[in-house]
Amino acid sequence: MKSIRFPVPLLFLLLMFGTAAWRGPGLWGEWGLPGIAILSLIVCRSFPPRIWAGGAAILGLIALYAWNPTHRWNEGVGLLPVDHVSWLPGSVFPEGTRQAWGLAAAMLASCALAFQLSENQVRRLQMAAMLGAAALALVVLAQRLEPRPFPVFERTGIFINENHYAVFSNLLLPVVLALASRAHFRAVQEGRPSSPAGVFMLVAVLMAAAVVLCRSRAGILVMALLVAAHVVLCRRLVRRHPFAGVPVRGWGKWAAGVAVVAAAALAIAAFAREWHQIGDIRKEWDFRTGILEDTMSMWKSRPAWGTGPGTYSVAYPYYQSEAYQDGAILHAHCEPVQFLSESGLLGGLWFVLAAGLALSARKGGSPRAEQIPPFADLERRAFLLGLLACALHGGIDFPLRVPLIALIAAAWAGVWAGTRPGRMEPA
Fold it and tell me: How far apart are alpha carbons 331 and 351 in whole angstroms?
């Protein structure tokens, strides 16, 4: 089954990213993004059966949750039990579950569209990611460098806080670095004296600087790990292809070492700046673990199917400890635990298996002649590094509850699945 060569999937993908980045009641409304996602699935419908089956399984189960409400929300009163089918998945807040269905539909479309992209279209996606990352990094740098009497910032770029921007930047950073490395490798192999690799590296430096200035501790730490991983990846590629025109120069090794040391030093400084005393560490640890304990109590009350996707902020107040009574806890600050509390063991297993089925799809077409280093060894691993960075952030935050980040992560997963070695669609 051949994918669409005209870049309709790429255009829809970029439109969805733009909608997620600028969505609001006055622009697209609550169902604007799911509407575009469904339209894209209809127009670009030549997806492998496994993607359709996995997506239908995910959306079908969420719809079942919404169809079987276990509670009704009353203003001024809260959740009131209603009659429902007790042995089926049910939602304590169907409105939130319907919103979760919309985001899941958009993520499915993002993954499926990215799966269809040819290698050339993946490079265009990388270029678009680089341009978006550069623009937002400049916005964040301008915000953080602007003189003001008190360092209080309402937003970080288009995100409500610095941690979400850090996840966004770290999702894109390995892809931008891979773009720079590919440009350099091509220039050396073709005997060209210059390449756009320096421009791409400058964008990567701006992204890293923006993460540092926004002072996201986790973001700086993950950024340091990504820089180290990219340096290791490039060194392995150079050793594997020593006769392909990929040079090993002293200044290159020196620059790579400086980059890793600088990233590690910035990560250490970020934690040292915030945590001056052991008491600060214990206070934050107690805050986060307390939320997780309450969330686990929430799951234990409904272990099989959970409270329903998109219901955490409404259900959590019924399980929260006294220490959190004065605040509004909207997320568990840990994606796996919140996912477990909303979906339960059976629902979570269903979602994981359905996602695995979709990502196990294969794309038809003849294997293309490999470039050096192969696409699978450089770009494909870069997309995987971005996903791993998002997963690390998900252990202490809630990145997948932010539509733009969720769509990018789904697209990266689609690219990773669609560029599986040996079955790449010719460019």
Answer: 20
